[in-house]
Amino acid sequence: MSDACSNPDHLPEEAWIVALLSLPGLGPSRLRLLLEAHGARGAWDRLCRGDRVTVESVRPHTLEGWRSAARLLSVRRHWETISGLGVSVAAHGSLHYPTRLNEDIEPPRVLFSIGGEVPSGPTVGIVGTRNCTSYGQRCAFELGAALASVGVCVVSGLALGIDAAAHRGALSILFGKAKVERTVAAGRPIGVVGSGLDVVYPKRNADLWEAVSNHGVLLSETPPGIGPQAWRFPARNRIIAGLSDALIVIESHERGGSLLTVDEAQLRDVPVGAVPGPITSNAAAGSNRLLVDGATPILDVGDVCALIGYAPPRSISSVTDPSRQSELLDVLGWTPLSFDQLCGRVDLSNAEVAIEVERLVSEGLCARSGPWIERVR
Predict the structure, then answer these.
(1) What is the pLDDT of residue 47?
(2) How many CB atoms are located within 10 Å of the residue 326 CB?
(3) Which regions of the chain carry the CATH code 1.10.10.10?
(4) Looking at the predicted structure, is the pLDDT value of residue 93 above 50?
(5) Which fold has domain 322-375?
(6) Which pTM was predicted?
(7) CA-CA distance, 284 to 292, in Å (whole number)?
(8) 3-state secondary structure of 80
(9) How far apart are CA 199 and CA 276, in angstroms?
């Protein structure tokens, strides 16, 4: 028997699950069937020996591909590689697996994470279109900041548009620019992504990935090294819904992908709210329809807290440190700069610059035009 199938006894269950996920064409659904039928190590041993495994609707050539790949892969070395990336791995039901997902109707069998464990406090999912308007972007940023300021963790998918704006708002509180003494720990952002945690997608959000991993937690059921695939994004929506005490939609087109997350929330009896948008806006057609169909109207953070039955302590001020805001505005002057140019002229990290720019845009002090950031007043 090859070294790949020698089965060292000291490896944790997660090592065998991660090894199974490395096999060609073996995704979350097939993983669940294998684990339910044979367990993680049992399934691997059967594949290595060429024994029969119980997985419905798997063609013989696919199964033979698994067996061939299993015989070539050293589980020990593969596990050491994953561990060396700084990615934590938790199997369903294990000590470090998120409590909220343990009893979910369709829990991920394994979760990869960077940045610590999922917080135990109140959580709210914020989702919406990637092609949002400036109105939607501002609503998402301000609601994300307001929720974080009262100790609520914002859950989203780190996509462009609404997702990113909500998380940037939450991070603006965590970067410590409040001018009053805090009376409650700020809510940490939770990002649920559809690719491996070492494959940033979209690349434009690289600074946001870094900030969320440093100040909150990044989660994925996709193993490291695997890039984005279309089917993985609807699959990750159930995790966003499962982690949330309520789901808030800010701008969704009539058939927007955010509505898939709403479906997952409703399957789990997670209450759904929506921020009203202009009735003439295509970007808000889906979210406005949710309101017609009975979703809770969300006008401010108080509406969200009422929806989840949370009585927040005294709100943290979100007033920006005037010295830092002035620094960015002074650097910008009245000549448009690219993001890279702006970062090169201030003593701040790229993530901090991105958060401050988002705030300045939301407050109407700056605007974006293509790659350029410019001061408008």
Answers:
(1) 93
(2) 11
(3) 322-375
(4) yes
(5) Arc Repressor Mutant, subunit A (1.10.10)
(6) 0.81
(7) 12
(8) helix
(9) 34
- Residue 102 amino acid letter: N
For the domain 123-308, what is the CATH code?
3.40.50.450
Token pair belonging to 373: 């950031």
Nearest CA to 18 out of 65, 85, 64, 63 is that of 85
Cβ contacts of residue 64 below 8 Å, gap of 6+? none
Q: 54 φ, ψ to 5°?
A: -100, 100
122 — pLDDT class (breaks 50, 70, 90): very high
Per residue in 174-206, pLDDT (tens digit) is: 765 443 344 467 889 999 999 999 999 999 999
Taking phi first (over 0 means left), then psi (-120 to 50 degrees means alpha), and beta for anything else, what does residue 80 get?
A: alpha
CA distance 188 to 344: 28
- d(Cα 354, Cα 323) in Å, to the nearest integer? 17
Q: Which residues on adjacent β-strands are paired with residue 127? A: 249
Torsion from C-alpha of 170, 99, 25, 266, nearest 10 degrees: -70
Full DSSP string of 170-193: HHHHHTT--SS--SSPPPPPEEE-
Whether the pLDDT of residue 41 is over 70: the answer is yes
